[in-house]
Design a protein that fits this description.
globular, Rossmann fold, binds magnesium ion, single chain, 10 strands, binds adenosine-5'-diphosphate, alpha/beta
């Protein structure tokens, strides 16, 4: 193990010990449950009665959900239940899919993103990180500068500043600061994913969508990306698709469970995992299907 891995592993061990201690203390009545409820945070995006069809296939059925500021909302559910489809609706990535039709409404800060909304502006505000890290075949610097350049920023000093800031926020700066001119494709998988996160935040989005961002990563890189998500939520609204229940419980403020295109239940994380209201949720959590 190198130093970085060692640090990540001991950070994980520390976090787990602390979480276990807190859970124990809470159980013993020594520590009150966190007071903040998810409703304390303002709604950033709101999905209202959304139906989505791929041709004849009804992939999302009357889905309504609020996504709140500076919180991590996780989408869980069996493969094919519509998690990625819903995520893509949030920055209109399904616009490009042939025969895809939606009904209903999605708002961002109160504005309907499907009515007279500038899609370029939308994609700048709502960034996306994919399952497989997908750096562009160019240098580390150019990957991060790509979005800002697209927005018209040409001044090199200004770009340098944005690149450093974005890589720092993505917890990658120290590892790459001496090789910014090297190809992004030469990095490890975990570093590539953090580079993609840096690229996404370089255009200063407000919301970050992540579709199974760690499923192609090793355990150490997974911990790093999860820690990063916890850090990023101080400034951004995060929506994370994951099929990993432990991950959902570690990083989310609230969890939404989907089944066959329906949103079955959306609740604060501890509530959804410990006291689900719908029997389909408990069946899924106990491994009866999916
Ligand atoms: N581009 C597409 N064209 C047609 N059907 C699609 C497309 N993308 C997804 N689907 C279908 O929509 C359903 C939901 O898919 P998806 O959102 O990818 O689920 P999940 O992310 O939960 O695994 C599945 O039945 C899938 O086959
Ligand atoms: Mg998916």
């Amino acid at each position: 193990m190198n130093d970085t891995e060692q640090n990540a592993t001991s950070a994980l061990a520390d976090a787990m010990t602390k979480a276990a201690q807190e859970a124990h203390d809470r159980e013993m009545g020594a520590m009150p449950a966190p007071a903040a409820s998810i409703e304390d945070s303002p709604v950033r995006m709101s999905v209202e009665h959304l139906d989505l069809y791929y041709g004849d296939h009804h992939a999302l059925k009357d889905v309504s959900i609020d996504l709140r500021d500076r919180q991590v909302t996780s989408f869980i559910g069996p493969s094919g239940c519509g998690k990625s489809t819903l995520l893509r609706c949030l920055n209109r990535m399904n616009d490009m899919v042939k025969d895809c039709r939606i009904e209903g409404k999605i708002t961002l800060d109160g504005e309907d993103i499907y009515q007279n909304y500038n899609v370029t502006r939308l994609r700048q505000t709502v960034g996306m990180v994919f399952q497989r890290p997908n750096p562009f075949p160019m240098s580390i610097f150019d990957n991060v500068a790509y979005g800002p350049r697209g927005l018209g920023i040409k001044n090199h000093a200004e770009l340098e500043e944005i690149v450093e800031e974005s890589l720092t926020r993505a917890a990658l700066w120290d590892e790459v600061k001496d090789k910014l001119k090297q190809s992004g494709l030469g990095l490890s998988g975990g570093q590539q994913q953090r580079l993609c996160i840096a690229r996404a935040i370089a255009v200063k989005p407000k919301i970050l969508l992540m579709d199974e961002p760690t499923s192609a990563l090793d355990p150490i890189s997974t911990v790093q990306v999860e820690q990063l998500a916890m850090e990023l939520k101080k400034e951004y609204t995060l929506v994370v698709v994951t099929h990993n229940m432990q991950q959902a419980s570690r990083i989310s403020d609230s969890v939404a469970f989907f089944l066959l295109g329906e949103l079955v239940e959306h609740a604060p994380t501890a509530e959804l995992f410990s006291a689900p209201k719908d029997s389909r949720t408990s069946d899924y959590l106990t491994g009866r299907f999916g």
